[in-house]
Write a structure and sequence with these properties.
Keywords: ATP-binding, Carbohydrate metabolism, Galactose metabolism, Kinase, Nucleotide-binding, Transferase. With about 500 residues, this protein is α+β, with helices and mostly antiparallel strands. It folds into 2 domains: about 230 residues, Ribosomal Protein S5, domain 2 (2-Layer Sandwich); about 170 residues, de novo design (two linked rop proteins), CATH 1.20.1440.340. Helix content is about 40%, strand content about 15%. Strands 1-13-2-3-6-4-5 form a 7-stranded mixed β-sheet, with helices on both faces. A 4-stranded antiparallel β-sheet has the order 10-11-9-12. The protein has a two-stranded antiparallel sheet with strand order 7-8. Strand 10 and strand 11 form a beta hairpin. The longest helix is centred in the last third of the chain and has 27 residues. The protein is globular, with a radius of gyration of 23 Å.
Length: about 500
């Protein structure tokens, strides 16, 4: 399936509301570069309904693409230069020469680094197709309305948009969603963030009116599916930005990257305890918790799980949760946290070997490694994803009025796990969830990387107005008394599943 090409704005849920934005983009492009753009590349943000910090363990997740997006008007120039500008004045313009390699300074945090992430993976892909490829000069003007640091994956949106426009400008008019996903899942690694793949896949595979089941095994793919129909009132998801910014790049050593290290270590720890060997298929070139699950049940004489049979997955994840509670796997002290020396001893590694294997690829900082807590979060949230899907399937066969309560319970349990086991929530996020649950939300949870950012709430159309008013009155106006109406409108969004990455021909 190829990335779609449009000649109008029909890929939006409300095309009319975006017309002025695109007109302004073309006008600004002409002012900056003195010519008209040839096309616009676009990739949306996403909200993850359930299943966070499990994608880099290769367990399935349930996001959906949003209408908020990053767009880039583009034209080809005759020079050996790439020129970048942004409609937002706080993001300065850049210009640099095309060279065989593109350097990214992780110490110098600028928005151009994310463009270069997309540029690098696109250039690598073009050279896969034709080793003699030489990039063309480009003029680009970016515009984005995905909140930065809001947990809706603005960084993935700009990386994917950048890769897409570079490919198009250099003659690739047809690229499959699978290939675009494959090359962009590693794009943010170039700025030192060890991402999994959910964000890029959700941005690329999104379809209007459909959520996505993203699977990582046996291969990375996004599978669109219809949200269940609820009566008498329609189910809706509301997204509210806590306005607690959490930039993945800046907080990665203690937050995102550390979680990646901890779950990789947890997989190796479990394998060592049970004398299993794992395939080194993680971003750190270690084993993964999904790999551990497969190897463990192969040891028990059971066939490898294909990821599709929900009941098999539920059964195996439940047994893994029982397994990690055994004292011979994690004793009481180990459940509280593990120091580096103890972890390296248990894995029979010298300190230097331990550092090289787990701590050398991406920057991390910690006092103790929370291997028990992280593995419990991964197995339990992966289980909740499958239970969420099973409720959806059951709804199709036999509509039930209890579906909203059942789904909401899973969302709330996921939030508790994100907070207590993965330590990825914040007090303001907890408060926002609590206000919502008391005023019309069936379930509320932090979405995406966490550590701030946005909350997704499950509600229905009839409850929506009172829920929004409660969030405004009890959270936003209390914490941000000078907040404007426009800022409130940006912070509280009714999210409908949207079209993924695409090209708009002008």
């Amino acid at each position: 399936m190829s990335v779609p090409i449009f000649k109008d704005l029909s890929f939006y849920n409300d095309a009319n509301s975006s017309t002025a934005r695109y007109q302004a983009l073309q006008t600004s492009f002409n002012k900056v570069y003195g010519n008209e753009p040839e096309f616009v590349g676009r990739s949306p943000g996403r909200v993850n309904l359930i299943g966070d910090h499990i994608d880099y363990c290769y367990f399935s997740v349930l996001p959906m693409a949003l209408d908020v997006d990053v767009i880039a008007a583009t034209s080809i120039n005759d020079s050996n230069t790439i020129r970048l500008a942004n409609t937002n004045d706080k993001f300065p313009s850049y210009e640099f020469e095309i060279s065989p390699t593109f350097e990214i300074s992780q110490a110098d945090y600028t928005w151009v680094n994310y463009f270069k992430c997309g540029l690098i993976v696109a250039n690598n892909y073009l050279k896969e197709l034709n080793p003699s490829t030489k990039l063309k000069g480009m003029n680009l003007l970016f515009d984005g309305n995905v909140p930065t640091g809001g947990g809706l994956s603005s960084s993935a949106a700009i990386c994917v948009t950048s890769a897409l426009v570079v490919l198009r400008a250099n003659g690739l008019t047809n690229i499959s969603k699978e290939d675009l996903t494959r090359i962009t899942v590693v794009s943010e690694h170039y700025v030192g963030v060890n991402t999994g793949g959910m964000d890029q896949c959700a941005s690329i595979y999104g379809e209007k009116g459909k959520a996505l089941l993203i699977q990582f095994k046996p291969k990375l793919i996004g599978i669109p599916f219809e949200l269940p129909t609820t009566k008498p009132h329609e189910l809706v998801f509301l997204v509210s930005n806590s306005l607690v910014e959490s930039n993945k790049h800046e907080t990665a050593p203690t937050n995102y990257n550390l979680r990646v290290v901890e779950v990789a270590l947890a997989a190796e720890w479990l394998a060592k305890k049970l004398k299993l060997s794992l395939v080194n298929d993680s971003n750190l070139e270690t084993g993964t918790l999904r790999g551990f699950l497969d190897s463990y049940f192969e040891l028990l004489g059971e066939p490898r799980w294909d990821g599709h049979d929900i009941d098999v997955g539920i059964n195996r994840l439940t047994k893994c949760l029982e397994l990690i509670e055994k004292p011979e796997i994690f004793n009481q002290e180990e459940q509280k946290g593990v120091e580096t020396e103890h972890a390296s001893n248990c894995l029979e590694l010298l300190t230097d070997q331990f550092y090289q294997r787990f701590l050398s690829k991406f920057p991390v900082k910690y006092d103790k490694l929370k291997l028990y807590q992280r593995s419990k979060h991964v197995f339990s949230d992966s289980l909740r994803v499958l239970e969420f899907l099973k409720i959806f399937e059951g709804q199709k066969l036999k509509p039930s009025t209890g579906i909203l309560q059942d789904l909401g319970k899973l969302l709330n349990e996921s939030q508790q796990s994100c907070n207590l086991l993965n330590n990825a929530s914040k007090p303001d996020c907890e408060e926002l969830c609590q206000i919502a649950r008391e005023n019309g939300s069936y379930g509320s949870r932090i979405t995406g990387a966490g550590f701030g950012g946005s909350i997704v709430h499950l509600t229905t159309v009839d409850r929506l107005e009172s829920l929004v008013e409660a969030l405004k009155k009890e959270y936003y106006l209390q914490k941000f008394p000078n907040i404007t109406q426009d800022q409130l409108n940006e912070a509280i969004v009714v999210s409908k599943p949207a079209t993924g990455s695409c090209i708009l021909e002008l």
